[in-house]
Amino acid sequence: MGPEFLAVLQILSLALLAAGVLFYVAGSVGLLRFPDAPSRLHALTKADNVGLGLVSLAAAIYWGEPAIAAKIALVWLFAIISSGMTAQLLARAAPVADGSGSPAEYERESGT
Amino acid sequence: MSAAFDILLCLMILATAGIALFVRGAFAAIAFFIAFGNLLGLAWLALGAVNVALAEIAVGAGVTGVALILACSRLFELGDNLADVRTPLASRLGSAALCLGFTVMLAGVVLTIPPGDRLSKVVAPLLPGLGIENPVTGVLLAFRGYDTLLETFVLLGALVAAWSLTPDASRRLPPTTMVMTDPTSRIVAEAFTRLLAPAALIIAAYLVWVGSDLPGGAFQAGAVLAGALVVATLGGVVVLPRLDSLAARIALMVGPLTFLAIGLAGAALGGRFLAYPDGLEKTLIVTIEYALAISIAAGLALLAIGPPQPMPNNARADAR
Amino acid sequence: MLVEGGHVFAVTGAVLAGLGFYSFLVKRHPIRQLLAANVVGAGVFLMLGGLGRSPGGADPFAQALVITGIVIAVALSALGAAMVVRLAACGDKDEAPLGEKREGP
To answer: Are B189 and A89 an interchain contact pair (Cβ–Cβ within 8 Å)?
Structure first.
C-alpha cells in the first residue's frame, strides 16, 4: 500500500467519524427536545445506532487490520442488539412510569 | 492533542460526577453515576490500564448501577419517595469549607509525587518464570496472591451478610423474582438472553484465557457472566436459586476453595502458602482463574440482585 | 514541569474525593450516601492510577490494587443497599419485623 492510499484511508476514516458524531449529536438533541418517552427513544436508538455504525467503521478503517475489524464488528453487533432490547423494554415501561396508563392502553391509544 | 483529550475527559468526569452527586432525583443520580463510571473507564484506557478499564466499566459502573437501581425501586415500592432532606445552610457551608480544604491538601500532596510505574521494572523480570505476560494477572494471582484470595472471601462474606438480612420466613424463597411482569417485555428479555448468554459464556472463557498474556482475567470475565445472569433472570430463562440451594453454594465456593486448596498444596509441597511449584505456575493460575470466574459471576449477580424481598416483590410475577 | 501526564488524572481523583465527601455530608438519603462513597472510592483509585502512569504504561501493582478495590467496593455497596432496603422494610417500628420472634443473643 502506497502512502497516498493510506492518506485516503485516513481521510475516509475521519469523514466517517465526523458523520458518526453528527448522528450522535442529532440523537442527543432529540433526546433532550422531544416531548414524550417513545419519541425520545426513537431519536436515541435510531440516530445513535447509525452513529455507532459509522464510528465503528471509521475505527475499523483506521486500524486497518482484519482481526481488529472483526472484533469491532462484534462490538457493534452486540451494542445494536442490546440497544434494541433496552429500547423495547424502556418503551413498554415508560407509559407506566409516566402515569399515563399501562402499555396495553398505550397501544390501544396509539393504534399499534 | 493527547493532553487536551485528557483534560477534556477529566472535565467530563468531574461534570458527570457532580451531577450524580448533587442532582435532585435519586434515579437520575444513579443514571449519571453509570455514565460517570463509563467515562472513568475511558480514563483508565487513557492511562494505559486496560485491565482496570474493563473492571471499572463492568463492575464499577454496571454491577453497582444495577444494585443501586434495584435498591431504589424497592425503596420506592416500600413508600420511600427518595427525596433528599435539605441540610441547614450552616452545616452545608461548614462541610464545603472542610471538603475544599481536604481537596486542596490532597491535590497539593498528589502534585508533589512524580508519576511513574516504578514497579513495572520489578515485576517484568519475574514474569517469564510464571509463563504469564500480563503483569496485572501476575501481581493478582502470584505476587499478591494473599490479597486476591482474601478479596474473593470478602465478596463471599458480603453476600452472606446481605443474605443474612432476610427474615427467617423467606429463607426458602429464591433471592428475588426478577422476571418482568409485562408478558411482551418478558419475551423480549428472554429472546435477548438466548442470543446473549452463549456469547457471554464464550467471551468470559476468552477473557480468562487471554488474561494470562493480554488484558482480561477472572474479575472481568466474572462480571460479563454476572451481567448475562442478571439479564437472564429478567427473561425468566434462569430461575434464581434458593438460599439453601446446593448448586448455588458450590458455584459460590468453587473459586475461593480452589484458590485455597492450591495455596495449601503449595505449602504442603515444601514451598510457602500460595507458592506455585516450578513449571506448573501457568496451569495452576489459569485453573484458579476459571474457578474464580464462576464464583465471581455467581457472587456479583446474586449481590446485585439482592436478598429475598419479603413483601411485595415475591408475591406476584411467579406466573411462569 | 509541574503537571505531568498522570497528574491530570491524579488531581481529578483528588477533586472527585472532595466532591464525594461533600455530597456524603450534605445528602441525607442513605442511597445517595452510598453513591457518594463510591465516587470517593473512584477518586482514590484515579489518584493511584494517575500516579502510576508513565509514558510506557501503567504500574501493574497500582492496577491490581485498583481492580481489587473495585470489586470490594461493589460488594460493600451491594451489602449497603441491601441493608438500606431492609431498614426501610422494617419501618420505624422498634420490634423485630415479620413475625421474626427470637430471643436475644
So the answer is: yes
Q: What separation in angstroms does the CA of B56 have from each of B43, B62, B97, B301, C68? A: 10, 8, 30, 16, 11
Alpha-carbon span B71 to C19, nearest angstrom: 23
- The closest CB to that of C22, out of B13, B95, B300, belongs to B95
The answer to whether the Cβ–Cβ distance between A82 and B196 falls below 8 Å is yes
Q: Taking the domain C5-89, which CATH number applies?
A: 1.10.287.3510
- How far apart, in whole angstroms, are the C-alpha atoms of residue B107 and residue B116? 17
Q: Does A75 touch chain B (CB under 8 A)?
A: no
Cell of A30: 432529540
- State pTM to two decimals: 0.87
* Domain layout of chain B by residue ranges: 1-84, 119-320
Whether B73 has its CB under 8 Å from any CB of chain C: the answer is no
Residues of B in contact with C90 (CB under 8 A): none
CA A107 to chain CA centroid, Å, is 25
Write out the residue range of the structural domain in which residue A17 sits.
Answer: 3-110
Any C CB within 8 A of B207 CB: no
Residue B68, chain C, CB below 8 Å: the answer is yes
Give pLDDT tens digits for B221-249.
999 999 999 888 888 888 888 777 888 88
Whether ipTM exceeds 0.95:
no
Residue B131, CA distances (Å) to B52, B135, B275, B278 in order: 22, 11, 15, 11
